[in-house]
Description:
By secondary structure, the protein is an alpha/beta fold. 35% of the residues lie in helices and 14% in strands.
Amino acid sequence: MRDWEANIRKVTPYVPGEQPKRTDVIKLNTNENPYPPSPKVAEALRQISAEPMRKYPDPEARMLVEAIAREEGVCPEQIFVGVGSDDVLAMIFLTFFNSQKPILFPDITYSFYDVWADMLRIPYEQQPLDKDFEIVARDYDKENGGVIFPNPNAPTGALLGLETIDDILSHNQDVIVVVDEAYIDFGGSTCTGLLDHYENLIVVKTFSKSRSMAGMRIGYAIAGEKLIRYLSDVKYSFNSYTMNQTAIALGTEAALDHAYFEETRQKIIATRENAKKELKKLGFSFPDSQANFLFVTHKRVPAAELFAALKEQGIYVRYFNKPRIDNYLRITIGTDEEMERLFEFLREYL
Ligand code: PMP
């Protein structure tokens, strides 16, 4: 080994779900929204000209921040935007998780959390979900350097009620608590109402799922003004211009089209509830998901086998070859037609 190799920051990166080159597939593997973004986004895209791109974008992304603040019913100083919620979460880890004590998150959860913790040398302890894949609130009472969990959790889809979130917060008032609400719009209640009671709470949301804009990369944090200022200081010490002009313009349109957001999220909820019935009939069981995916296991056929058989048919779902969940598949909710194709194949195969 050469001397310089000892000084390299070596990391095991996060592996995102596959984006197949083929377009003739049914893509239920990365929790994307099956519906296009708001028609107002398409309209705004037609109005965009290249000329302003010679200038830097607004470093504060003020137009987008104000639209999100209006939608969330908070003031713009309580919003921090980033390049997808992954960017926002990475900034949060960097800014707030600097204790010698371990941060706490579930053992089965978004698999980027341990990657950021490892990369940034943040100690962490994973708290096991119970046998029904539920977060156990009491596991988060111990001393720690911060707490983070998604609600609903990923990849299980299980939702914690607001009283449980309140309970976890009431036992963790001396550290930053982050609730990652990437999937909250598919049936849960946002915990932003708790921001008035807990100045240490940060809620993170994204345009990637319920606003159909994964490809545009827009995410945000909502918190008290003081935490947002700390977060912005770190971001401006890293890269002033994370949000490009197109993302700012199109994200603003998506944020303001509340009617379209309601219509598409209700369609996905209805499709998911029907999928629960169909998959149960086929012999699957799963936590009661309130997200845009189901985390399913079959009573007879191993998940790895089903994953391969589905892929062969051009139906992509997600399989995690990890302890406790290696007999489960995460199936994103697609359109009714896509889900029917999935059920048809499963009826035949099983
Ligand atoms: N949090 C959770 C729980 C997720 O599943 C995802 C999607 N991979 C994200 C955050 C990040 O989403 P994005 O960066 O697209 O906003």
